Amino acid sequence: MANAENNSVSTRSSELYREISQMDDEIMKLVEQINQPIGRPDFGAIEEARKKLTDKRMKLEELSKRMKE
């Protein structure tokens, strides 16, 4: 029974780490969009990216809490 619990925890941890890795990739893409040196900054795109980054940060906080459980 303990082995099944360990597998369950291991699988859950793997899934959480995978989600965090995907979130990290998405965040890096958003940061690149914000920092692109274009002649004139697209403030609408920057604001949209900031909103997405805020959402991603909240999601990461939720994942972090789940990992601690």
Question: What would your notes on this structure say?
Answer:
The structure is a single chain. With 69 residues, this protein is mostly helical. It has one domain. It is 87% helix and 0% strand. It has two helices and no strands. Helix 1 packs antiparallel against helix 2. It is elongated, with a radius of gyration of 17 Å. It starts with a helix and ends with a helix. The model has no long low-confidence stretch (mean pLDDT 77).
Features of this protein?
about 85% helix, mainly alpha, about 70 residues, single chain, about 0% strand
Q: What's the Cα radius of gyration?
A: 17 Å
Number of domains: 1
Order of helices and strands: HH
Overall pLDDT: 77
- Total helices: the number is 2
Strand content: under 5%
- Helix % is over 70%
Q: How many angstroms separate the termini? A: 19 Å
Category from helices, strands and their pairing: mainly alpha
Largest sheet: none
Poorly predicted regions? none
Got a strand count?
A: 0
Bulk shape = elongated
What's the SSE blueprint?
Blueprint (H helix, E strand, L loop, with lengths): L1 H34 L7 H26 L1
Short description:
With 69 residues, this protein is mainly alpha-helical. It has helices at 2-35, 43-68.
